[in-house]
Write a structure and sequence with these properties.
By secondary structure, this protein is of the alpha+beta class. It has five helices and four strands, in the order H-H-H-E-H-E-E-H-E. A four-stranded antiparallel beta sheet has the order 2-3-1-4, with helices on one face. The two termini are 16 Å apart. The model has no long low-confidence stretch (mean pLDDT 90).
Length: 157
């Protein structure tokens, strides 16, 4: 069971992190505790497995990326991990994960790539394919047309 102050810390981490020199100080101040105490609580919740992950969400449209593609890859399962590691090493890849293929959808690896235009996304996918040893016929690009939702989980208000 979390204490009231722990719930406040978790709630403060659910939104946008301030873009400033000491973002955790700013967050600590919003809930009225010292920065050191705030960081101690975050560290303890992480050690306990209550906070398992802390990550940034890139708002790619606001960052100047106009083309965003999920690349679906068909890779032999015996090579999936090694190929995924190669793919994930590319600077243009923001996500890389494996999913089970379906009878009518043979793809099992997925990467997200972002670029200034669709042609550049295709070129990036081609470079990734070459590096990973994936044939041109074994991947397809699915371009984002409209963002419908991008929110984080909310545990506490």
């Amino acid at each position: 069971m979390l204490t009231d102050i722990e719930k406040k810390v978790v709630a403060s981490l659910q939104g946008n992190i301030p873009v400033c020199q000491r973002p955790f100080l700013a967050l600590a101040e919003t809930i009225g505790i010292p920065e050191e105490k705030y960081l101690d609580i975050v560290a303890r919740l992480n050690e306990q497995g209550i906070i398992r992950r802390f990550g940034a969400t890139l708002k790619h449209q606001k960052s100047g990326f106009k083309a965003n593609a999920m690349v679906a890859w068909k890779v032999d399962e015996t090579r999936a991990r090694a190929v995924g590691e190669i793919m994930a090493s590319f600077q243009e890849v923001t996500h890389c994960y494996r999913r089970d293929p379906a009878p009518t959808w043979p793809y099992n690896l997925y990467t997200m790539v972002h670029a200034a235009d669709e042609a550049t996304c295709h070129a990036i996918a081609g470079r990734i394919a070459t590096a990973a040893g994936v044939d041109e016929d074994d991947y397809t690009l699915l371009f984002s047309r409209k963002e419908l939702k991008k929110t984080s989980m909310q545990y506490f208000k």
